[in-house]
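Recap from last week: sequence in, structure out.
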Amino acid sequence: MSTPHPRMYVLVRLDLDATYRCVQGSHALAQYAIDHPPLFKVWDNSTIVFLGVRNLLDLKMWEMNLIQKGKMISSYREPDQDGQLTAIACFDMGDIFKGLKTAG
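Predicted structure tokens:
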């Protein structure tokens, strides 16, 4: 049995087109690299999990919850969408994300 390890989780809005979700999630991941370089280096391009949330309101609730729990996150707000929150990246053990489905 292997030891659990942190993964990079990217939360994206399911009300966005699938291709757009990939792009927005990539922006959140890039923002995480800028915001948290030491943790990004620890991640070392290992496991990444894209998870979906219903819409903007759900993503905002996740953002607030993750911040309140002290998680290291990076949020991405798309300039072409009037600065709307579109994705969040978080390097974590992942227990908090149980129950969310993949964004596929």
